[in-house]
Amino acid sequence: MTRKERHTIKHLIQLQDLVAARAQQQASMPSQRLQQLDKSIKTLDDELPIELKTHFNRLLQKSIEAIVPVNGDNCSGCGFALTKTMVNSIAAGNELNRCPNCTRILYKPDVPLTRRSPRRRWGDPVKRGIERFSAPELMIASLKGTTKEEVLLEMCENLRAEGYVENCTDLHDAALRREAIVPTAVEHGIAFPHVRGVEGGGLTLTLGVSKKGIEFGAPGEKLTKIFFYMVIPTAASAFYLKLLSGLTQSFASKPARDALLNAKTQEELWKALVKATKKMIQ
Q1: How do residues 121-167 score in pLDDT, each as one tens digit?
Q2: 268 and 191 together in one domain
């Protein structure tokens, strides 16, 4: 990949990450932290050539994923099968390539983020609501970590132990990079750490509770106690904002949050999550 194209790709990814962070903030905490994000977005946006800027912003109006990695020989945004010639061109990086189907800009990731989901067995009941995205084994009623890094790693290790992730190293690094853009902690002691662009399987949520709370960048430097950690495939990036909004509304009330904080076991935490989200997450 040429130095110019490498710079352009990184520039677009950085811009897209800021746009996604803004959308996340708006979905979970509409009135805060948007001004600085808007300023950073405008700075990067203004540095793009006009033709690329126009196309990129047109794509962002449709989805928060305007530039996506290739997943094997497919566009990770829409799943379209790419020709070998195009895949080789993307890997070479001599020019910007667009998916022939969705027109997203494509790139070859340095370290692909991949995962797997446990197979659904024949005869298993159809999942509804929050059960579509999580499971009892992904509940951690009492996190042991005392720092941001420790909590994120603990939740990632739980995903690995339960067979949802093969390796935590790259996923953990990606989660920390996302937090560095703008903290995902919001009001009421809640945070929504996540990693986008993790291919393989569906959107997955793991929930962890820290009884004492930790510093996670929340407004007013308040401690964060409830962590909704999401692993998000590229194709589900727009949908996760709906899930995020549903979680925010479900736990806007103190009794709903207290039910999570008071849960002593994995089973109790799961029941509290299902009950609180029954109306808002279908």
Answers
A1: 555 566 789 999 999 999 999 999 999 999 999 999 999 999 888 88
A2: yes
Q: Are 255 and 226 in contact (CB under 8 A)?
A: no
Please report where in the chains the tokens 């589900």 appear, as a residue: 236
**Coil, strand or helix at 195:** strand
Can you give the CATH number for the domain in which 15 is found? 1.10.287.1490
The proportion of the chain whose per-residue pLDDT surpasses 90, expressed as a percent, equals: 72
- Whether the CB-CB separation of 8 and 49 falls below 8 Å is answered with no
Amino acid occupying residue 152: L
Count CA atoms closer than 13 A to 77's CA, side-chain side. Answer: 21
For residues 85 and 70, what is the distance between their CA atoms, to the nearest angstrom?
A: 13
Beta partners for residue 105, in sequence order: 67, 98
Cβ distance 169 to 115 under 8 Å?
Answer: no
